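FORM 7B: Structural annotation worksheet

SECTION A. Query
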Amino acid sequence: QVQLVEFGGGLVQAGGSLRLACSASGNIFRINAMTWYRQAPGKQRELVASITNSGTTNYADSVKGRFTISRENAENTMYLQMNSLKPEDTAVYYCNSRDRWSSQDYWGQGTRVTVSS
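SECTION B. Predicted structure
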């Protein structure tokens, strides 16, 4: 089992910045890529950004150029630096990773980000 815990959500004005963190514990060897998802009120959960163990990244078009995903493998922590935030970035942000053998998805409890206009 892998446990994921998110930190860093909050309320920020449009144009501001926030940094989210996701700390992984447990059987870390079972995961490779780590991913940020978000779910806005009344909408489906969507992928924001992902990063592999080797540092390969992928971003949703809506956040390219504004968000940066990074990872400190030695600390088992993933980050999401969010700049130039927009009201439409308001959502609960979730950390995710998938078990490389069983394909089980691991999820954090989510952290709320609210961007005021």
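SECTION C. Observations
The chain has a mean pLDDT of 96. Residues 72 and 89 are 24 Å apart (CA to CA).

SECTION D. Sign-off
Analyst initials: ____
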